[in-house]
Amino acid sequence: LPGQILDQWFESEPLKATLATDAVIGAMASPHTPGSGYVLLHHVMGELEGRRGAWGYVAGGMGALSQAIARAAAAQGAHIFAEKAVCHVLLGTDGRAQGVVLQDGTEVRSKLVLSNASPQITFLELTPQEQLPKDFVQRIRQVDTRSPVTKINVAVDRLPSFLAAPNTRDGRPLPHHQCSIHLNCEGTHLLHQAFTEATCGHPSSRPMIELCIPSVLDPGLAPQGCHVVSLFTQYTPSVLAGGQPWDEQARNAYADTVFDCIEAYAPGFKASVIGRDILTPPDLERIFGLPGGNIFHGGMSLDQLYFARPAPSYSGYRSPIPSLYLCGSGAHPGGGVMGAAGRNAARVALEDFRRL
């Protein structure tokens, strides 16, 4: 339990609750859920520019990271087809993957196919079901993909000024504006309460909010004096109580709750808002192909990690289809912007390619 781990090291409840958010981030779990402590440790895995457990911001936004990977691949001779949806994986008479078929009917032939789509999309939508073992298909169908996350992107015409550390007269960014700001995290009991509401199908009345202002570090993201604010919030159930849809009314009602919470910490925030983009779990699934809206392609619980990710006997990036590999967050070691799954999968695929 993360609560026990944090109790051993810290006395301050606000500090413990703030750190506990990393135990439940992206997970339909509370700090009191057994096993959630792993996710806390997962978030300090690795290092950034020599600093262990550190996190960083990508200049230009997260898309810049994808573009950097694309440029590195293109420099090695890779051909990249953007905006080309894959219809299904092409199989030969011997059952091996031989490429992919695009939705416009184009066949792209290759000796190996690596998919960083989720296991659900890769194996349940893009692969002929008759070619897969039934127990494997059942296991992929049973992966827990519940997600509590609603992401809200906001454009504001001035920096938020927090009661705890008001802005200076010149309106320049202060140190806390360059960090991840946690709201509604004064105690772990608040996180548990927010979680409990969502398990009953109701968006949290006092959601956990991680507020980031990337334009403070990267001024090119917004016009001078204006800023973009990224809100990572939970808990919101994928399916609302009574089967109600996440329509515009439900979306806006939840966003208003989030904004009311921020207003209590930073009066004037609501008046500074120019526009907002609300992405509920169904939106995250529809737009980004995240099953259930889960940012990790599947829960990071102990029964879905290590040798069991995405399924027992298939944690080594190979799949039941020869020459088809899984290299995304649904593979070991799971989610997070670290590239570990892709690097490991590439090494396995390279090993097989040399044999071919």
UniProtKB/TrEMBL annotation:
It comes from the Eukaryota. Signal peptide: none annotated. PANTHER family: PHYTOENE DEHYDROGENASE, PYRIDINE NUCLEOTIDE-DISULFIDE OXIDOREDUCTASE DOMAIN-CONTAINING PROTEIN 2. Belongs to the carotenoid/retinoid oxidoreductase family. This is PYRD2 protein. It comes from Pelecanoides urinatrix.
